[in-house]
Amino acid sequence: MRPRLLLLLVALLSGCSDSKSEQLAQPAPAPGAPKDPVQIVQPEVRTRAAVLETTGKVQFNEDELVRVNAPVTGRVTEVLARPGQVVEPGHPLFILDSPDLGQAKADYAKAISDLARGDKALKLARDLFEMKAIAEKDIREAENDYNKAVAERDRAAARLRTLGIRADQLPEIADRADASTTVTVRAPRSGVIVERNISPGQVVAYGQSDTPVSLFVIANISTMWVLADVYEPDVPKVRLGETVRITLPCCPQDRYQGKVTHIGAAVDKDSRTLKVRAVVPNPGGVLKGEMFVKVAIDTGSTSVLTLPQSAIQRSEGTTFVLLDLGKGEYERRPVKIGSDFDGLTEILDGVTPQDRVVSTGGVLLKRDAK
User: pTM for the complete prediction?
Assistant: First the structure.
């Protein structure tokens, strides 16, 4: 009987132990369990950039713009380029038929002939002077004539170069083998042709006006000018080198950034605005000439006390925050606020950096707050 009784006691003790273990076991918290809906923060001092917002207009960068005029008076026989075309230095733009070119070639040929004659005369004078057949003043006159011939040759060659004549063409002109009157006008630099005021058969003139008509306008559109209108009271805020951000009315999400490079010297008497110029990179050529844009100019930075925008409460025309007093007690505190930036609100008065403020969950508490 004893062995059977001993086994029964062991079984009973084992059952009691398992039952106690099951009572002490606690279920693990389920993942994603809700957190405390009330979050507390303290006001923080943040650096805020001061921004002046205005409007402006896009223009071509005048420092990267070239206007092509007629190098000589003549008639246009052929136009070789069109608006919107991308050109490189030396690209042919148009061909002129000009009697002035023939005259320039004749002048160069005559200058070469006079130079050869002057060189022979100088050599002869030196030989005669060594033989004491002429006076010293005669050799000086020969040298003077030779120097004049050199200067005239250089002048005539320079004139031909302005007409697009290459250096390798000069020997044929000097030998009077090249007497053609047509000249090809080429692009002086790379860029995009943004304007063309020429057509075949048109007669163009050279040197008849202080402001000749630009036959072609070539612009480098990798950078553009933006002329912003700054109202008179805001003029002292703008400084050279400040950052400028440009947005298009059609695409406010796209921003283009540049620097202030020039501040106008006079305020427009009608609009009472000053022109402020910025150079703005133009990747992809999105900015076009004469576009209207929105302009934001950085005018410095200031330190301000801030709270998250979610901490600001409004009720019955009053703006306030909820202060955490501890032990589950909260207090309404009226505040004076400034503008919003980067998800924060500027606090002008009402709280200090030492206060504990409800940032989220205030809707649940403001009815019970003191």
Answer: 0.62
